[in-house]
Amino acid sequence: MNLEQQILFFFSALGAFNGFIISAYLLFFKKPKSTSSFFLGLLLVSLCLKISKSLLFYFYPALPGIYIQIGILGSSLVGPSLFYFVQSALGQDSKHKTTMTGTYLFWFFAIVIASIIAPYDSKSDVWENYIGRIISIQFTVYIVLSAWLLRNVFGKIFKGGKISTTETLLQSVLIGNIIVPVAFKLPIFSFFNGPCISGALFFSAVLYLNTFLFISRRKNKNLFSGSQNLVRYANKKITEEQAVTLTDRLQKIILEEELYKNSDLKLNDLAKKINISGHQLSQLLNDNLGKSFAAYINEFRINEACELIVNDRGIKLEAIGYEVGFNSKSTFYTAFKKHKQTTPMHYKEQLLVVSSN
User: Fold this and answer.
1) Are 142 and 150 in contact (CB under 8 A)?
2) Is 22 exposed, middle or buried, given 0-12, 13-18 or 19+ CB atoms closer than 10 A?
3) Cβ-Cβ contacts under 8 Å for 264 (sequence gap 6 or more)
4) Is residue 221's pLDDT more than 60?
5) What was the pLDDT predicted at 5?
6) Residue 341 region, left (φ>0) first, then alpha (ψ -120 to 50), else beta?
7) CA–CA separation, 90 and 92 (whole Å)
């Protein structure tokens, strides 16, 4: 390589190198760990593999095709990682963990099997004309899905509203993932000795821009906290729309995992389950639902207790209280009377009268 090529290689490779360092930190060393940081780490690894492949292909075209195959494997994981990062950062973590894992396994094994059946060195046309196009379509689909998740952020911009630094960050990550592949594809970006170098240089610029945005958020303890959303509410009051969404998630996870049966359940523990802060959960319960944490959880316990009494499996009333999550008989009786305006015994007697008639 001449001096000009060496300079281009240095600056274009610098972003990929730093990307690997940052991704290693997010995946293995960052504490506390969170879903958002995990997927951002995967996104960076995938992008860096893709960028490295292009650099090696440009500067060292005689290298074995396995390097190209590894880069294409990274390309196949960029779209899913971007989508799951945005989803988790918005506090919309998918409950279908199996689907997420299956997505990564599918693309990983698909590329590995393709590498075995049709190695790039002997079947380069298959990779360029078929596998490459499939991955491009897959990436486009995930870009559209990610943009859909951020539709409210773009709506604020079009309406002239203000967006938070974090929302700016998410928007920047999305746009960056659009610019970099465009720089690889369009001839207009070939002014840096070809689109391969242009794409790598754009990646470096986008990486450093987003790193700056991340650093500007360090003073906020909510940054990628495992127990809190990346995106905070724009104001202190939770809107009715947000309250409905959060309440649905809250009720679903409480019922599915029967969390109310845990007599030691704490507000912060429940908040972590739906990826918001304890303060936000308290705000949701008190301001939007008009209930204390204890009253809200006791409703689930009392409803379960009523079902057990109705089914009459021969369980003593005191035992029912412990079964549904109360830690004492007196607490159970007090909560039951508060919610049903009668005692458990009277409630059972009323059922007997109704059934006898």
Assistant:
1) no
2) buried
3) none
4) no
5) 56
6) left
7) 5
pTM of the predicted model, to two decimals?
0.57
CB 170 within 8 A of CB 153: yes
Question: In one letter, which amino acid is 217?
Answer: R
Question: 112 or 189: whose pLDDT is higher?
Answer: 112
Contact present, 151 and 144 (Cβ < 8 Å): no
CA dist., res. 332 & res. 38, Å (int)? 42
Measured N-to-C along each axis, helices 195-216 and 3-24 cross at an angle, to the nearest 10 degrees, of 40
Q: At what angle do helices 35-59 and 165-185 cross, to 10 degrees?
A: 20
Where b means 16+ CB within 10 Å and e means fewer, 286-302 reads eebeeeebeebbbebbb
Nearest CA to 271 among 227, 304, 306, 312? 227
The beta strands (E) that lie in the chain are given as none
Residue 208 has pLDDT above 50, yes or no: yes
Q: Which residue has the tokens 């000795």?
A: 193
CB 340 within 8 A of CB 347: yes
Number of H helices and E strands in the chain, helices first, is 16, 0
Q: Where are the alpha helices (DSSP H) in 60-96?
A: 66-89
Report H helices in 97-239.
97-117, 124-126, 132-149, 151-158, 165-185, 195-216
Residue with tokens 């429940």, as numbered in its chain: 270
Distance (Å, rounded) from C-alpha 181 to C-alpha 242? 34
User: Which residue, among 81, 86, 110, has the nearest Cα to 23 in the 3D structure?
Assistant: 81
**Alpha carbons 93 and 44: distance in angstroms, whole number:** 19
Tokens of 291: 């209930």
Here the tokens at position 303 are 């409803």
Averaged over 113-118, what is the pLDDT? 93
Residues 6+ apart with CB under 8 A from 275: 35, 88, 91, 93, 227, 228, 229
pLDDT average, residue stretch 39-61: 80
The two tokens of residue 316 are 């003593």
Of the chain, the percentage scoring pLDDT greater than 70 comes to 74
